[in-house]
Structure formats: structure tokens, C-alpha cells
Write a structure and sequence with these properties.
With about 350 residues, this protein is α/β, with parallel strands linked by helices. Among the domains are: about 120-190, no CATH class; about 195-325, Rossmann fold, CATH 3.40.50.11320. Helix content is about 30%, strand content about 10%. It has 12 helices and 7 strands. It has helices at about 25-40, 40-45, 50-60, 65-70, 90-105, 155-160, 195-205, 220-230, 265-270, 300-305, 305-315, 320-325; strands spanning about 15-20, 210-215, 235, 235-240, 245-250, 275-285, 290-295. This is Putative carboxypeptidase cpds. One of its GO terms (molecular function) is serine-type carboxypeptidase activity. Belongs to the peptidase S10 family. Keywords: Carboxypeptidase, Glycoprotein, Hydrolase, Protease.
């Protein structure tokens, strides 16, 4: 879009990506996976003998020393390629995932706090449980009288997000999403976005660029995304000068969840109230921000919709970066009937 220089159709001002695959799997996943596992060990409760084994495997592969040497703020310089950087298998993460599944059959690599039984999933085979947004037949008489879901197929939602009417929404694409698969794997064999696409977008867009990651995402750990960003050069400097120092403050929705006679009725008790308060950490330098979102997994909006909405407000300039991530009031009345 930027190369076309067509401001009529492609007047790109900024960008926003969540839990992105911007690097090869080794530096993105394998290198930071030990730090991720140890940080969440009080939650994961992995066997200590197995954890020692993983530490040994991680060190033997050279990943521990690579992480310690290059995960610095500011970075010491451009990173070299990690050992086995072209390996898409994520072997060590796979070992951890297998161990977790043995002790917790409902373990979800997309959101590590999921446990059995999955009471809130309408479909046990759905890797992305999101009831009621994924289930057919959902109706919201406040917004869409006579219109039924899934939620993102509702006419009013399609209109709001400019989605085509003739295409059905699905939680996850049934078709391969990688446009340039390598010969050896199903992974994308294109050049790494962190060294190609991202610097060009960051340098050529006048607005805000935001990269966000869910803290509970083990598929792409937050530090893997941040580690990759530390090797990106934009607007005259490489990476961020400091580890995210700021607390992400999300304002209250203003919805009274106990008011069954209010405009949202009993719906507010279940789905109408987003999380508020301290919801992660963030850093913003030279037009680019990184946001580490608390409670969220691989799908930030799925698990922390309030944080996602605030990030969109900042991206669109409805609130400033400092004010928006610092807990300023919403730019719209969240509690209003019919929103």
C-alpha cells in the first residue's frame, strides 16, 4: 500500500498487529520459551525434574546464552541468526506443551490458564472457545432484532467493521494462511517481517504503530515478540531503549452489572463488563508502541476486550498515547444503550 503511493485508497497512517509471527520460530519462540515457562511456573506447576531437563536442552541448543546476550535495552547491536534459526518445529515448546497436556488435558497453548472442564465452550473441539460469539443462533434484541449469529455475521456488526456480506465469519480459517510456505514445513518461508516489512511501515507512516501481545500466549510469547522488535531499526535507532516500564491502565466501563433493569439487562452480568485497572505494561518510542496485555492469550480481543478497545482508541487518535494507556476516560459511552 505504501509503495503504491495512492492516498485515495491506501492512505495508510499507522498499523496494529497482535501476537504476530514476525520472526523465525527459534528467536520468536524457542529462545524466550524458557524465560516464559519459569516466569509462569507458579501457574504451570511443571515437574521440577522435567523443568531441569528443559533448562539443559535450552542451554545445550545455545538458546539460553543467546537470550542473555541479546535481550537488552537498549540493544547492543544487530542480532546474528540464532542456532537452527530455520527450524519451524519449536521442539522445546512442544516438549513443554506435551508435558502440560499430560497433567492438564485441557491445556491450551493459545491461553495457558485454560483448565478442565471447559465449561464456557460450546464446542469441545474449538481451540478458540468464545461463546457466545461463535455459536449460531445468538440474538441481541437491543441491536439486531431478528438477526442471528455467529456474532460477527450479524448485519449490524458487518456494517460497523465494513465486512463483506457474502462471506461467512469463522473463528479460524479452514484454509492455510501462509502465503509462501517453505519446502520443508508449512511455515511461511518469506523473509522475516521484522527485518523487511516492519521497518518500512514504521518509517513511512506518520501516525502510530502498535504491536501487542497477550501475556498468557505460549504460541508466541510476549518476550519473543519484544525480543524480535529489539532487532528492528526504525526512525534512526534500533529497538526500544527500555523494557516496557509503564503500567497499562484500563478505565471502568461504567456498566452496572447488577442492574437487570438497565439498558443492558442481565446480559451485562455475563458479557457486558470488560476488565479495568492494571492490565499489563507498555512502552512507546519513535512512533511505535509495544503493549503486553494481561489476561490475554493469542487472541487479545477474545480474552481482554477492554484492553483491545483502548488500544484501538489510541491507534485512531481518539485518546493520546500517554493518556490512553494511562487510564483516561473512554472516547465513547460504553454503558450507553444501543452501543
Amino acid at each position: 500500500m505504501l509503495d503504491r503511493q495512492d492516498t485515495t485508497y491506501f492512505n495508510l497512517q499507522g498499523s496494529m498487529i497482535y501476537d504476530p509471527a514476525i520472526n523465525e520460530d527459534v528467536p520468536l519462540v524457542e529462545v524466550p520459551i524458557l524465560a516464559f515457562t519459569e516466569y509462569w511456573q507458579n501457574l504451570l506447576k511443571l515437574n521440577s525434574t522435567f523443568l531441569d531437563y528443559i533448562r539443559g536442552q535450552h542451554a545445550e541448543a545455545g538458546y539460553t546464552s543467546f537470550y542473555e546476550e541479546h535481550f537488552n535495552f537498549p540493544p547492543n547491536g544487530v542480532f546474528p541468526s540464532a542456532n537452527n534459526s530455520a527450524d519451524f518445529s519449536s521442539r522445546i515448546r512442544g516438549l513443554i506443551q506435551d508435558a502440560m497436556t499430560l497433567q492438564e488435558p485441557c491445556f491450551n497453548v493459545y491461553h495457558i490458564t485454560d483448565t478442565c472442564p471447559t465449561l464456557w465452550s460450546w464446542n469441545a473441539e474449538d481451540a478458540f472457545p468464545l461463546a457466545p460469539f461463535t455459536q449460531a443462533g445468538i440474538q441481541d434484541p437491543q441491536l439486531n432484532t431478528g438477526d442471528s449469529g455467529p456474532y460477527y455475521n450479524l448485519t449490524v456488526v458487518r456494517d460497523a467493521i465494513h465486512a463483506p456480506v457474502g462471506r461467512e465469519w469463522e473463528a479460524c480459517s479452514p484454509n492455510p494462511v501462509f502465503t509462501n510456505p517453505s519446502n520443508a514445513t508449512s511455515g511461511d518461508g518469506s523473509p522475516r517481517a521484522q527485518l523487511t516489512v516492519m521497518p518500512g511501515v514504521f518509517d513511512r507512516t506518520p501516525g502510530i504503530n502498535i504491536v501487542a501481545n497477550g501475556q498468557f500466549d505460549m504460541l508466541i510469547p510476549s518476550n519473543g515478540t519484544l525480543f524480535s522488535l529489539q532487532n528492528v531499526t526504525w526512525r534512526g535507532a534500533q529497538g526500544f531503549s527500555e523494557y516496557p516500564p509503564n503500567i497499562l491502565q484500563i478505565p471502568p466501563s461504567g456498566i452496572n452489572a447488577s442492574d437487570e433493569n438497565g439498558p443492558w439487562g442481565s446480559f451485562a452480568k455475563i458479557e457486558g463488563v470488560g476488565r479495568s485497572g492494571e492490565m499489563g505494561k507498555w512502552v512507546f518510542e519513535r512512533g511505535v508502541g509495544f503493549v503486553d496485555v494481561a489476561y490475554a492469550g493469542h487472541g487479545v480481543g477474545r480474552y481482554n476486550a477492554a484492553a483491545m478497545f483502548r488500544i484501538i482508541e489510541v491507534l485512531l487518535g481518539r485518546v493520546g498515547v500517554e493518556e490512553g494507556f494511562g487510564g483516561a476516560a473512554w472516547s465513547v459511552d460504553i454503558a450507553a444503550s444501543g452501543l
